[in-house]
Amino acid sequence: MEKLYSDEELLMISGIQHYYYCKRQWFLIHVEQLWEDNIYTVRGDVLHEKVDNPFILESRKDRFISRSVPIVSYSLGFYGVSDAVEFMVDSEGYYIESKKNYFKVIPVEYKSGKPKKDNCDAVQLCTQAMCLEEMLDIKINHGFLYYGKTRHRQRIELDLTLREEVLELSKAMHQIINNDRIIQPDYCKKCERCSLKNLCIPKTKTHYKSVKNYIKAKLNDKEDLYA
Ligand code: SF4
């Protein structure tokens, strides 16, 4: 795989969820470094706390599971942590010296809610799989999405269409960063559930070029009051 991005250019895989929900939300969190919790984010965190324990290593006869696996792809420009990776004994799989055996590698992503209408969970899972493929020089055909609300795990085939979506997304997200573009708010129904509503102020008519500028402007207003 061709290395297209440097360490400094890598974007967080978790940002894909935000980008799908709203480009502005992704921009505020991952470029402007702003974050505020609400009930939906807290619910997700609780589920992840149970999963993100790097010391948990479940082992059964024909498989073992690694939790919170760090992953990276320099051809996609993404890095992050996979919730869990299952290793199933498979004679055509990836050889693991410490286990003296070959394993099929299957990424698993946990979500607190239920399956969504859009493709963002599958795209995130596919990105994780593509990272693992690059790191281990293997091919991964499928992964699983586990939904906390329905307590059901859904098998996702990592086909060409999904992979192309990941590539397009990577290109678009990096282009925004490279072009120094500011993503402006666009008020819609989703804003009411958004944890960043108070920081984004999507209904304001004056759109500042950056959130930093907005905060600076507000601070200047306050200073004027005390002048
Ligand atoms: S408040 Fe609305 S426009 Fe602003 S980040 Fe959230 S969803 Fe996006």
TrEMBL record:
Mg(2+) or Mn(2+) required for ssDNA cleavage activity. GO terms for biological process: defense response to virus. GO terms for molecular function: exonuclease activity; iron-sulfur cluster binding; metal ion binding. Keywords: Antiviral defense, Exonuclease, Hydrolase, Iron, Iron-sulfur, Manganese, Metal-binding, Nuclease. Its EC number is 3.1.12.1. Its cofactor is [4Fe-4S] cluster; Mg(2+); Mn(2+); iron-sulfur cluster. It is an enzyme of class 3 (hydrolase). Residues 14-201 form the DUF83 domain. Belongs to the CRISPR-associated exonuclease Cas4 family. CRISPR (clustered regularly interspaced short palindromic repeat) is an adaptive immune system that provides protection against mobile genetic elements (viruses, transposable elements and conjugative plasmids). CRISPR clusters contain sequences complementary to antecedent mobile elements and target invading nucleic acids. CRISPR clusters are transcribed and processed into CRISPR RNA (crRNA). This is CRISPR-associated exonuclease Cas4. It comes from Alkaliphilus pronyensis. The gene is cas4.
